[in-house]
Amino acid sequence: MLKQISSLTAVARNASLRIPLALVAAAGMLVVTESAYRSQTNRLASVVDMGRARILVTYAMQRVTDAESGKRGYLLVGGDEYLAPYHEARRDVAKALDDIKAYDLSAQDPKLDALEKSFVWAVDAKLAEMSEVLRLDEAGSHEAAVAVVRSGLGRELMVKLRAETDKLMAYRNDRIKERLDNINDLFMIWRLAIGSLTLVSVILLIMFIRLGRTFESEREAQRKALKEERDKLETEVEDRISDLRELTRHLQTAREDERGRLARELHDELGALLTAAKLDVAVIKPKLQAHMPELVPKLKHLTEMLNSGIALKRRIIEDLSPSALKTLGLVPSLEILLSEVALNTTVRFEHDLHVVRLLPDEQLVVYRVIQESITNGLKYAQARTIKVTLMEVDASAVVQVEDDGQGFDASKTPTGSHGIRGMRFRVEATGGRLDVWSQAGKGTRLTAIIPLKPEAPAGAASLM
Fold first, then answer.
1. Quick one: which H or E segment has residue 436?
2. Contact, 64 vs 127, CB < 8 A?
3. What is the pLDDT of residues 423-458, one digit of tens each?
4. How many CA atoms lie within 13 A of 140 on its CB side?
5. What is the reported pTM?
6. How many contiguous H segments (helices) and E segments (strands) does the chain have?
């Protein structure tokens, strides 16, 4: 038993050590994963910003081309319908350059900043060239404006702009590819890490399942051992209770036998002495009346004393061993008991007694229980009314004694509890049970239930 408990404790200790380690590992993995997630989120955000900036670069280049087309159309044909797209394209280019600078501000890349400045310079130079051509035309020097266009400066600036655009786009493409490669590498690492973590989790799950099965088997073994130990203790308790009941039955039998022996000795010895004394008084009574009449009152008093002694002897014998129980039966004996107690007290008795099939020993138990209950009601409860009931209910003899006395707290040990304990032992020795209900100021009700035996004879009918 101790070995099983020690083994179960060791399993629980191992589990208590592994669980914190698993939690620490999981927390570490969570921290690393969260850190990597944040890092890659920033990288993805920078890739997105760089992609948007690249689109804006292309858009700016397209709008510069649109502005160039609008300028040429205006120089060739004239009309504000060609000049309006030019001004609109310049505004779009300016806004696109501002947005590009905003996206690249967070990149913190010196080379990108240099390429961006070269691109912006090329854009500004081209826009300045177009502005100068239009200024000359608006100033009335149309030929001078056309000469600037024919000089090839605009073409050179556009070639320069395309070259700067290509450099900037190529660098941006390289940076996007580099960061995407980093992200793919990290994703591969994540895949390996997640695969490893999944493998470790499966291994840990298998270990925990095995540990749980071991723990469950150990606990089941401990439960069986505890059940066996409990069953053994229950068997021992039942044996002890059976021994106590047998001892109680033996003591009660011995007590009743001793009472019967004492009653017989009182009946034989004391009865013979009192009877002889009364006969002697009867013999000397005529002589005293003839020769000493003054002693006749004394002789009369002596006769009364002898009669009282004989009555006391008879009452003591009946208390020790009720002879009516053997000769008349249980119900008449109880009626006689209640009648005699009622003559010597002011308590009012009510009874509802029925003939019940009980063995002689069980009849004596019922008689003693009722006798003890009446004594308690008179001595401790100060009852005014006592009701006694004896009947057969569901193959059991039910005995109930109820009084209207002062009662007591049934959850605490009351005065005279030894009497109640003795009654309980008597009833339980017959295989029955004793229930006591009581409340302060509401009286007491004692109920004994004794199972009937098939071989029990019917009790004698009441003679009263």
1. strand 433-438
2. yes
3. 887 888 888 888 888 888 788 888 999 998 776 555
4. 0
5. 0.46
6. 11, 5
